Each structure stands twice: as structure tokens, then as C-alpha cells.
Amino acid sequence: MIMVAVFSAFVFGHNEMVRPIAFALAVGVLLDAFLVRMTLVPAVMALFGRAAWWLPRWLDALLPNVDVEGERLAPVPAGGAAGADEERAAEDERGAARR
């Protein structure tokens, strides 16, 4: 919306060469933001289902495993350290199954 506001401001300027370019950019950004990114992309992702999130194995091997939500920092289960090791092994198996 900021880009649309900035481009629209140039439409009302005095430079006749900039006005049509600014108008085209404002309309293009507005259509991209609302029509494409808020309508078409979610609809296509809903049609594809889980396939929309598919990642090739070779790419998954190259990407780092980033723990943004801190699941690895969860408290140790009541079973002690052995339980935590088993839980990590189960997580690794689930990750390998997804690949």
C-alpha cells in the first residue's frame, strides 16, 4: 500500500512524462497485491494441497534445519535424558519420512 501511495502521489505531480508511468505502476502494484497475492495464490495452493509445500530431497539436504519456534528447547520429559534422546530420534525419523 505504501508503494501505491507513493506512485499515486507522482500521478498528481506536474511532470507530464512521469504521470503515466506512475499511474501504471500504482495500478500494477495494486492488482498484484490484491488480485494475485490475496486471491490467486491462496486458491492455487488450496488446489495443490500438500503438493504446494513439496521440497525436492536434494534441496532439503542443502537447506539448514532452522528451529524458529524453539522445539528443541522444550523441557526434558519425565523419562530423563534417555527419553529426550528417543524423542529426538523420533523427530529425525519424521523429518526423514517427509523427504
Summarize the structure in words.
It contains 4 helices and no strands. With 99 residues, it is mainly alpha-helical. It folds into 2 domains: 52 residues; 45 residues, no CATH class. The chain starts with a helix and ends with a helix. It is a multi-pass membrane protein. It holds the Pfam family MMPL. This is Putative membrane protein YdfJ with MMPL/SSD domain. InterPro entries: MMPL_dom, Mycobact_MmpL.
Order of helices and strands: HHHH
Radius of gyration: 24 Å
Arithmetic mean pLDDT: 84
Class of secondary structure makeup: mainly alpha
What distance lies between the first and last C-alpha atoms, to the nearest angstrom?
Answer: 38 Å
| Total tally of structural domains | 2
Main sheet: strands, sense, barrel: none
Number of helical segments with 4 or more residues = 4
Which regions contain 5 or more consecutive residues with pLDDT less than 50?
none
Residue fraction in strands: under 5%
In short:
The protein has 99 residues and is mostly helical.
Comma- or semicolon-separated keywords:
99 residues; mainly alpha; 2 domains
Write the layout of secondary structure elements.
Layout lengths: L1 H10 L6 H31 L8 H6 L18 H18 L1
Helix pairs in contact: 1-2
